[in-house]
Design a protein that fits this description.
- The structure is a single chain.
- By secondary structure, the chain is mainly alpha-helical.
- It folds into two domains: 1-199, Growth Hormone, Chain: A (Up-down Bundle), CATH 1.20.1250.20; 201-378, MFS general substrate transporter like domains (Growth Hormone, Chain: A), CATH 1.20.1250.20.
- The chain has 18 helices and no strands.
- α1 (7-37) runs antiparallel to α5 and α4 (73-90) runs antiparallel to α5.
- Residues 185-202 have low confidence and may be disordered.
- Residues 1-385 form the Major facilitator superfamily (MFS) profile domain.
- Belongs to the major facilitator superfamily.
């Protein structure tokens, strides 16, 4: 049996690593962008909103664009991802930076849409191999997301500036996977064409799907509120130096990486239990992070927050797709739309609240969203038992 970890599959892994790196890196550089350009937090948060706009656009129209690009869809998405990072880093003024974030979002959303289908196709119908490949791709992405704030923090500590660490590293790393993705044209073309042709006839989503869709918005909003504002909180509230705060913010993505690495074993406990317990764990970790002034304890709380948040997105996404089994392509597109809505509203709302009431008070938006999510998961179960 032919091994599935071919150079093409390794190229897909590397592409997901670039995506994880840049998502975490965008949060790590946000305080630097704000200080460099004298922006209020509400305006600085518009950069994540530009990324979210790219995600929403691809969620609505990406399958058609992928069908037209064919074999070039995957390398074009990766090129847009790292090219957007370069434009964001080198862009002159607010407009250039915003355009870079938008291009970055378009490329990242393209990878989210195409890589899973390409991995399944590359496994030649072997379900176990496809599942392993998807897990390994997410593991690479999570590991790279831990690396990003460490690299940005190290660059700041050595007076190198954030640009080389944010844009230079993924630009250099993306050269080889772009070549690998171009060389293997059959799988990419097959996956993107299948995605386009699989669009089913119109039909209304069931009510259960929209309930899970709402949960997905809440979960993704919490994740990105903490991801984009953790470094600023550590610097502004906990009194850490800017470079140290950026490096220390890796505690959150480290917790997420550890949580997702243990997802296979954790699921044995039952998804309903996990989805009731995970928000509680995340809220408890955030309480420690928010209340304890000691930096070491705050970082421990941030790590626990990441552990609690880690499983929310994959578990709720799976439930959402199961709730609309007859139309998987449309369900996946609507879930991408949920992520875009969450990223485009959660972090900017927190930034706007921070300008009005201070960052420490505004940060309570994250546990408030966790509480709403927890109630949405627990109350229906309690009523059904009664």
């Amino acid at each position: 049996m032919r091994p599935f970890r071919t150079p093409y599959v390794l190229g897909l892994y590397a592409a997901m690593g670039c995506l994880g790196y840049l998502l975490a890196g965008l949060g790590a550089i946000l305080p630097e962008l704000r200080a460099e350009r004298g922006l209020p937090r509400g305006e600085a948060a518009l950069y994540p909103s530009a990324f979210a706009l790219g995600l929403i656009t691809v969620g609505l129209l990406g399958h058609r664009l992928a069908a037209r690009l064919g074999r070039y869809a995957l390398p074009a998405s990766l090129a847009a991802l790292v090219g957007g990072a370069a434009v964001l880093a080198l862009g002159d003024g607010r407009a250039g930076t915003g355009i870079g974030a938008l291009i970055l979002g378009l490329g990242g959303a393209g990878l989210v849409q195409l890589v899973p289908a390409a991995l399944r196709a590359s496994a030649d119908g072997r379900g176990a191999a496809g599942t392993v490949a998807l897990g390994e791709a997410n593991a690479v992405s999570s590991a790279a997301s831990v690396l990003a704030p460490l690299m940005v923090g190290a660059a700041l500590a050595h007076d190198l500036g954030w640009r080389a660490a944010f844009a230079g590293v993924p630009l250099a790393a993306a050269a080889i996977p772009v070549v690998l993705l171009l060389r293997r044209s059959t799988v990419a073309a097959t996956a993107s064409t299948a995605t386009a042709r699989a669009a089913p006839a119109a039909g209304r989503a069931p009510r259960a799907f929209w309930s899970r869709w709402t949960d997905l918005v809440l979960a993704v909003a919490v994740e990105f509120c903490v991801l984009f504002w953790a470094a600023d909180l550590l610097h502004t509230v906990k009194g850490m130096a800017a470079g140290t705060a950026t490096t220390a913010s890796a505690a959150f993505v480290l917790g997420m990486a550890l949580g997702r690495a243990a997802a296979g074993r954790a699921v044995r406990l039952g998804r309903d239990r996990l989805l009731a317990g995970a928000p509680a764990v995340a809220a408890a970790g955030f309480a420690v992070f928010w209340t304890v002034p000691a930096p070491a304890a705050a970082l421990a709380g941030l790590l626990v927050t990441g552990l609690g948040v880690a499983l929310l997105y994959p578990l709720i996404l799976a439930q959402a797709l199961e709730a609309w089994p007859g139309q998987p392509v449309r369900a996946a597109a609507r879930c991408a739309l949920a992520s875009g809505v969450a990223i485009g509203t959660g972090p900017p709302l927190l930034g706007a609240l921070a300008d009005l009431a201070g960052l420490r008070a505004a940060a309570l938006l994250a546990p408030a969203l966790l509480l709403v999510l927890l109630l949405r998961r627990v109350l229906p179960t309690t009523r059904s038992r009664r």
